[in-house]
Amino acid sequence: MHYFIKFSCFFFMVFSAHAQSSIDQALDWYNRESVPYISVTEMQNFQNQVILDAREWEEYQVSHIKDAVWVGYNEFNLAEVVKNIPDKNLNIVVYCSIGVRSENIGEELLESGYINTKNLYGGIFEWTNQGYPVYNMEGEKTKKVHAYGKLWGKYLTKAEKVYQD
Q1: DSSP labels, 105-164
Q2: What is the pTM of this model?
Q3: Under CATH, which architecture does the 21-162 domain have?
């Protein structure tokens, strides 16, 4: 019986996590709001910002926000960021697909003294859903966005979804 209860709880948690129907619900479920959010609209007025892409290299290669610096997620190296961005007072916006991985990277940045770090609410999916452009590795506008996986791809509504590894 004890194992049945554990399995039931596990099944409920997995089902609930996968049943999120909107970016808002997914972020409520997965994030702790430990890094202040910035909306796509607010980001347009955020001055002197550095934009960090916290997705995997394969995702970044498909498309990214203009002038975004790839820092990765699994490969994230805080020492490299400190070396390349020594001014810890700069405005930093971190993004990923919807804002889950970028919250984790944002936490590391905040803990390291980057006091003006923000997490892009809804990530690159919300960015493109609101009609803002993304760019490929040649610097050209593209409609393609790496959708990360079928589960997450449902949140990307106004771009051509790419599921390559």
Answers
A1: HHHHHHHTT-TTEEEETTHHHHHHHTT--EE-TTS-EESEEE--SHHHHTT--SSEEE--
A2: 0.86
A3: 3-Layer(aba) Sandwich (3.40)
